[in-house]
Amino acid sequence: MAALRRILCGGKSHVSVLLRREFHKSSPAALQVTVRDALNQALDEELERDEKVFLLGEEVAQYDGAYKVSRGLWKKFGDKRVMDTPISEMGFTGIAVGAAMAGLRPICEFMTFNFSMQAIDQVINSAAKTYYMSAGLVPVPIVFRGPNGASAGVAAQHSQCFAAWYGHCPGLKVLSPWNAEDARGLLKAAIRDDNPVVLLENELMYGVPFELSEEVQSKDFVIPIGKAKIERQGSQITLVAHSRSVGHCLEAASVLAKEQIDCEVINLRTIRPMDTDAIEASVVKTNHLVTVEGGWPQFGVGAEICAKIMEGPAFNYLDAPVYRVTGADVPMPYAKILEDNCIPQVKDIIFAVKKTLNVI
């Protein structure tokens, strides 16, 4: 308010503008919430809402989670609802899947999804296929969640994106949140779903704050699985991304706007089932498409989007081939300069847009 006093003689319009700013800073309607805290809130509310929900994984209880996503939950809900497990993904994932078959709603945390490879038989052959093979008699309401994709300086065995891996398998729903709203709404939807759901978080996004509206803060707020969101309206080219790459697309769109290139940015949110209708509607409007992802190019999420557009009505509206921006087709190097060149950057998206529009 000191700034307000300093400009009291500066005119009515200046005062009203500053008053509005001060009001919005203190207004309870919108909060700055990190992705980590959004996930924590969703877990807290769903554990409280349904006594069948429980969380298990390595260090999720007494240590508050390797990434502090489960901070405070063990103290609040106790050993029966928040359980530390041995370092055995195959073992505790099997326990979780069996619990889901028996009527509980487990949330199974992998310290990173790279370690989910140790439990791949439980995730695919047990969780994903049982609902179908039992003719709908045995639902498996389980959530597999944890950090996915490249982090920083952790090399090849800790830097894979599993969106395409799990998106390939019928029986799973696969979600990939970007911001705090996505994290909160998608996790709550996943916990309430009767199907096995894979929630692919991003380690580098955990500490990033985003504004949450009053609506999103509601305990009843969920994001429908299978619906993408247009983060930025545009008319000349469509950028489709998921997870951290959505932010890169928005940054690239802001830079390109200064050059009178108008980008529409779509946040996929859900990898499977994919919101093909939203992508097609955007392509019909913009006539150009660039896909962006952190995973490898071969058989990737972008490749699937290309195929869907090729096979559908939107193909006739394309004025240029679809361009994919992906991670490099190599195991992730450890050296930072090589790592940076293996992960899609804003400059790579800008180049792809200009190439697609033939303005280079």
UniProtKB/TrEMBL annotation:
One of its GO terms (biological process) is glucose metabolic process. Gene3D superfamilies: 3.40.50.920, 3.40.50.970. It is an enzyme of class 1 (oxidoreductase). This is Pyruvate dehydrogenase E1 component subunit beta. The pyruvate dehydrogenase complex catalyzes the overall conversion of pyruvate to acetyl-CoA and CO(2), and thereby links the glycolytic pathway to the tricarboxylic cycle. The lineage of its organism: Eukaryota, Metazoa, Chordata, Craniata, Vertebrata. Keywords: Carbohydrate metabolism, Glucose metabolism, Metal-binding, Mitochondrion, Oxidoreductase, Potassium, Pyruvate, Thiamine pyrophosphate, Transit peptide. Heterotetramer of two PDHA1 and two PDHB subunits. The heterotetramer interacts with DLAT, and is part of the multimeric pyruvate dehydrogenase complex that contains multiple copies of pyruvate dehydrogenase (E1), dihydrolipoamide acetyltransferase (DLAT, E2) and lipoamide dehydrogenase (DLD, E3). These subunits are bound to an inner core composed of about 48 DLAT and 12 PDHX molecules. Interacts with DLAT.
